[in-house]
Amino acid sequence: MKKFLFLPLLFTLFFSGCQVPHVTSIRDNQPSPVIQEQTNFVAIENGQFVPKSVSIAKGTTLNFENKDDAIFTLASGPHPAHSLLKDLYKIIGKGEIYNYHFDEAGTFGVHLEENPSVNLEIVVK
Hints:
Blueprint: H1 2-16, E1 41-45, E2 48-50, E3 53-56, E4 60-66, E5 72-76, E6 89-92, E7 97-102, E8 106-112, E9 115-124
Parallel strand pairs: 1-4, 3-9
Antiparallel strand pairs: 1-2, 4-7, 5-6, 5-8, 8-9
């Protein structure tokens, strides 16, 4: 009879200290991916737009960065009317960044007022 009392006691002691192991996959240990917003930069380098054409989504802000030593004036096309984006006319100094928000879909031209043959095509979808 002592055997039968001893077995449940032994069983209880043995299994009370055991825990069900938590199984994790390799994915559980990976950091969550960081979703970054797309940054839309156009540089002015050596008196030229880099790149010469961009395609962006409607509602996107385009950042114009002057990486040149000269001061430039950004102007909407066509020259000299500047009628496509009437509020885009901005003097941008060395190292400065100018942000312009595009709320309308379409194809727009921007040029450097100092050299109107330097053009940037912006396609807003």
